[in-house]
Structures are given as C-alpha cells and as structure tokens.
Amino acid sequence: MSGKVLVVTGTGTGVGKTVVTAALAARALARGERVAVLKPAQTGVADGEPGDAAEVARLAGPVTTCELARYPAPLAPATAARLAGLPPVRPAEVAKAALDLAAGHDLVLVEGAGGLLVRFDDMGATLADAAALLAAPVVVVTTAGLGTLNDAALTTEALRTRGLDCHGLIIGAWPAAPDLASRCNLTDLPEVCGGAPLLARIPSDAASLPPQKFRRAAPRWLGDA
C-alpha cells in the first residue's frame, strides 16, 4: 500500500460525516496530495442521483470517488440491501477497494453509513470489521451538544475493545452560538473517550458555503488534526 487509509465513522446518522470527509479531502488536496473517497454502501439515494461521495467531490474538489453498492431505501445497509434484493457489501470487499485505491493515491477516505456498528449484512459485519482488515485509523464524527458524551464514549469504547486506533474526534456541525453543553463538551469529550483527542470543529454552515470558500477554510478548521 502506497497511500494512507483513514476511516470516517460517526456516532450516528446525520452527524456530519460527509462534510468532515470533504474537509479532510480538501486539506489533503491543498497539500498537493492525490485523494480518493470510498463510500462502501450508499443508502437512501436512487440511481443517477448524487450520493455522499459526489457531495465530497463538489465541496472538496478533484477527488477520485468510488461506491461499492447503492440501495434506494434510507435504512441501514443490511436492511436496505435485503429489501432491494441486492447483494450486501462485505468487509473484505471494502478492504480490497480501499487498498486498490491506496495504490494510486496518497490518501483514501472511507466514509461509513450511520454509526460504527451499523450492519453491512445479515451476518453482522460492520465498518469496524473493514477497519480491522485494513488496520486503518478511525476518525469519529460526533455532535456538539447534549447527549454527545454518551454516544461518543460508546463509539470509542467499541473501537478500543476491537483493538482499533481512534485517531480522534471531530464535531461535525459546530453551532455559531454554542450553548453551555456544547462549550463544556469541548473539555469533556476527550475525557470520556479514553483520551481520544478532539481534533476539530466544523462550522454548522460549512456545507452551504461556495465550494471555493469551503476549500480555503478547510485547512483552517482542521489545523493540525
């Protein structure tokens, strides 16, 4: 493998995984790196409609995009595949695709669906299994406010029990006017997550920015993450 593989998961659905993936891609592109984005299972999007990988490319710029499977129902991949009568995604397929992309890119970002333990198939395979096959570090995207401590702690604990490397936490939608819980969570998140660092806060309006502005801002949002 020539390039690095980084897995992007979340504490749940709608926490900002795609915008975080785009920010990571934009920063790498700004450094002159070749970037690929792998979406193993895209759900809730019909054929011909842009999915999460396309949104990353829109925001970040010229990245190689790859989807392994697409299911129209907005459900967990295993359930969506079963309802559509289509084959599920297997962790070995995800790992192979990521390694193939890494052979020609400096960075491969693997964006999961939903949370870490959302099922790919009816055998219980998850994104965590793909990350284990790749021995790849995992970034956990979480929310800012009340409730995030439990969700983030459970996700990072699941990583540790599987021997997976939590590269750190990123808040996927930091509010313009953060409340008390959000401000306190900046200190509390690393503590409850076993020391996993809080790497960045992505503004809640980031996805609505013009792409060129997004690309200029992404390195600043991420800093040394």
Separation of termini? Answer: 22 Å
Oligomer: single chain
Globally, the shape reads globular
Largest sheet, in brief, is:
7 strands, parallel
Query: Structural class from helices and strands?
Result: alpha/beta
Strand content: 15-25%
The average pLDDT is: 96
Which blocks of ≥5 consecutive residues have pLDDT under 50? none
How would you describe the overall organization of this protein?
Strands 3-2-4-1-5-6-7 form a 7-stranded parallel sheet, with helices on both faces. The protein has helices spanning 17-30, 52-60, 77-84, 91-102, 127-134, 148-161, 180-192, 211-222; strands spanning 4-10, 35-43, 64-71, 107-115, 138-142, 166-174, 198-203. The radius of gyration is 16 Å and the shape is globular. It has 8 helices and 7 strands, in the order E-H-E-H-E-H-H-E-H-E-H-E-H-E-H. 48% of the residues are buried. The mean pLDDT is 96. It is an alpha/beta fold. The longest helix has 14 residues, at 17-30.
